[in-house]
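--- STAGE predict ---
source: upstream dedup step, 1 unique chain passed
mode: sequence only
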Amino acid sequence: MIPYTARKEFQESLFTVMDKVWAYVNQPASNPLLHVRHKFTIYDIPAFNEDVIREAVLNAVGHRLWNDLSSVVIKQYPDSINIINAGGFPGGVTKDNILTVSSKPRNKLVMEVLEKTGLVERAGQGVDKMFYNCLMEGKPLPDYSHTDDYQVELCLRAKIVDEAFYIFVNEIQDKRKEDKLNVFDLLTLDKIRQGISTDLFEDSVDKLQREGLIKSQSSADRKFVLNDLYYEMAKQPAYIKDYRARDLQIVASCFEKAKEVSMKDFVAAFENQLSRGQIKYLVLKLESEGLIIKKGSGRWSIYRLSEKTSFDKSVFKQFQFAIEQ
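--- STAGE serialize ---
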């Protein structure tokens, strides 16, 4: 909405204003508790995490463009918070490498003051902390997609997108003493949870495989799934026959939208999850087993569900399960 329900301006020392900003965000009506139930336990998770909000605001102050006199703006909605500061990302920093590139503050002196006074732990660690906390709470990752050359806009969403993942990673971390999983380990687990097996952090993949937290279907297969514990919590299998359940879910969603699906449609549905070669292999396998039928050739090829897939429930349940999930 363009009209706002409340507005507050702060013009004072950053050291005193941080508590006031958090107090304003953390009102019961605007920062409710979200509840996750597991067996006989109910976990209470605030919609907006204090550590994440503080780090986001400090980053906005420390990395802003200082010769632009505009304010740092915080927009709070029921399901998200947007924090906006003047100036795009510093040179060499993008939304894709923000976790791995060296920190480049626009005002080194400001960041040194924040560090030495304890407002930030160490320069460059704020983004790591935001991603880490979002992953530990089963929430979407911090979203910088609306950032441009003139401003950085960070969106933090409140909703818990996967309760089973929240329980899974917290149980893992609780069992570990000092050797906690780091943010790259959690990002790897999160990608695999979503069915993404490309562009993973190889050090984390090796570590998680050694510890049995992820596994592949075969030594030659680069498609990973999480430990069985996650799928028990999520009440869904990792595989249905020889197919990964999430792959079938995506294929099923394509046929929900249209009776005939092109390779281009499959590629779009699996964007950032499977390579084009992996998608072709999956489609060819479904075709060879008679679950889908191909019409035409080359770029004009289209696919539809076979009659036995449509009417034989013993076969169609592979797709039906994915649709119901």
